[in-house]
Amino acid sequence: MKRFKYSYLLLLILIIQSCATRPPENPDNICLIFKEKKSWYKAVIRSEKRWKIPPYVLMSFVYQESSFQADARPEREKLLGFIPWFRPSSAVGYSQALTKTWEDYKDETGNTRASRKDFGDSADFIGWYASKGYYQGFEKTDARSLYLAYHEGYGGFEKKTYRKKQWLIKVADRVQDRSAKYQKQYWGCAKELKRKKFIFF
Asked: Which domain holds residue 165?
């Protein structure tokens, strides 16, 4: 009987974890994302209060970097065109943060137990990294520039290394377009999301 209870409890935990980490059903609508993922909404609001990054900018980053997949990683390169080889970078999780940058984040913020596969930690990381651009004159709603700096580093952005990467410029344009789309949607549901049933669910 006890074994059955433990098995049932384990199954229940696995189901809950699966529901918590799976991508949202409607990734093109920020309002529906937050209504489905209430813990994500709370995490994004915490990041906004701490780092001043707007929810729609942050979510456009997560969409681009990982498609809201907790265990996202760059595809492995192919040796001889067909043998799976090393991954091109150490990026992991919602934010696709590199290992070294993630360690810098943990050291600087004191969030030593942070995980790149945890949405709340990833949201805080993106806000932390974006906030460094505000001191350099970046606008908080300038998702395009913030994303280019996120990808190239602020040193690389200052050197304009992205100019040699037309594919990256196109990606940054898409991030800006999605941020603008999410922004318009968010303005239509922000008051509803702030109600206690969403904040204290």
From this structure: 25-199
Separation between Cα atoms, residue 125 and residue 127, nearest integer Å: 5
Q: Which of 172, 179, 63 is nearest to 122 (CA)?
A: 63
- What is the dihedral sign for C-alpha 153, 102, 144, 49? negative
> Does residue 106 lie in a domain region?
yes
- CATH number of the domain that residue 151 is part of: 1.10.530.10
Residue 15 lies in a domain: no
Q: What's the number of domains the chain is made of?
A: 1
Whole-model pTM?
Answer: 0.83
Q: Which residue type, as a one-letter code, is found at position 110?
A: G
Q: Which stretches of the chain score pLDDT less than 50?
A: 9, 11-19, 73-74, 76-80, 82, 84-89, 198-201
- Residue 18 in domain: no
